[in-house]
Amino acid sequence: VSVIIFPFLGVLAGITTWLLLGRMGSPLAQMKSALLNHQFIPYLQPLVEGDNYAVIGAEALMRWQHPKVGMIPPDQFIPLAEQSGLIVPMTQMMMKQVSNYFAPRASQLPIGFHFSFNISASHCTDMGLLEDCKAFLAAFFDHPVLLVLELTERELICPNEITTRLFRELHKLGVLLAIDDFGTGHSSLSYVQQFEIDALKIDQSFIAKIGTDALSAHIVDNVIDLAKRLNLNIVAEGIETRKQAEYLRAFKLDYLQGYLFGRPQPMSEFAKQWLNQINPTAIPYSRKPRA
Ligand code: C2E
Ligand code: MG
Ligand code: MG
Ligand code: MG
């Protein structure tokens, strides 16, 4: 029953949000004023190591803290932000908020701790992204952190001249690139060939199928196997149950992420929960030789 009810509730919530927003003027105009009013904020979700579950990084996930509607999840406003180009200043704001908050607390992070941000395809043709990354890393000058950019396939990234140069410069700067939702799109394998990718995040839809039936198990095993053969850092996303975590243990994945380890939370809560519990021996994302 929940399989039917929950997506239904999600759709209903989405429609309700847009009905409420619609009555307050054009969604785009509201997004512009929300940007000026700092209503887009990062929630942070921990990433843990695969063997001892020590926290090694945090993914920033955008939320729209709307004064009337409440907290709006990204699926309901990112597409419009991408189409309108607002995603670029919105992402800059996210990076600034994270560095402003964590740079003064960076001594409480282990060496090699990473922050990752989701980057839209349209942003990958903007050399300004390089400056934003430089500014982010510079804020952590006395306690360096790693910076990871997660690329999805919602919009296609064309390997044009600017993108190629941007990714090359980012690589030189030490910024790591990850493919998000690996296994779902058509182009993640070509991204791996075209760009210097450092990490793959196996999509949560595969993890959700663990323990359901033999065919699903076969698919999950093969997606993980393919990812491992590419010799990149591997993250499994969307782990909710101990059973899923136990199943994945056999694959010796580098990193895990999911509600089982921690939900996305406001920065101050993330700091309260995780900053003093961090394992100093955790092994960070690393650059591996290409397979
Ligand atoms: P994503 O980058 O693949 O992020 C993972 C999503 O799965 C997040 O949803 C997270 O809250 C959720 N999640 C994490 N662990 C679990 C779990 O154990 N079970 C389940 N069921 N879900 C889990 P969220 O925060 O709603 O974000 C959805 C998507 O929106 C993200 O998927 C990403 O593609 C996009 N997004 C979020 N923030 C940004 C952003 O700042 N910029 C861009 N361009 N896209 C963003
Ligand atoms: Mg992501
Ligand atoms: Mg994902
Ligand atoms: Mg996703």
Walk me through the structure.
The chain crosses the membrane at residues 1-21. Its main location: membrane. Residues 24-278 form the EAL domain. It catalyses: 3',3'-c-di-GMP + H2O = 5'-phosphoguanylyl(3'->5')guanosine + H(+). This protein is an alpha/beta fold. It is 42% helix and 19% strand. It is built from eleven helices and ten strands. The protein has helices spanning 2-22, 27-36, 78-84, 87-102, 128-139, 161-173, 188-194, 204-208, 214-229, 242-249, 267-274, and strands spanning 40-49, 55-66, 70-72, 114-119, 146-151, 176-182, 199-202, 233-236, 255-256, 265-266. Strand 2 (55-66) and strand 3 form a beta hairpin. It is globular.
Number of helices: 11
Point out poorly predicted stretches: none
What is the averaged pLDDT score? 89
The total of beta strands comes to 10
Shape field: globular
| Small ligands present | ligand C2E, magnesium ion
Order of helices and strands: HHEEEHHEHEHEHEHHEHEEH
**Termini gap:** 44 Å
Strand content: 15-25%
Indicate the structural class. alpha/beta
Main pleated sheet: 8 strands, mixed, barrel
Using only C-alpha atoms, the radius of gyration works out to 19 Å
- Give the strand line-up of the largest sheet: 1-2-4-5-6-7-8-9
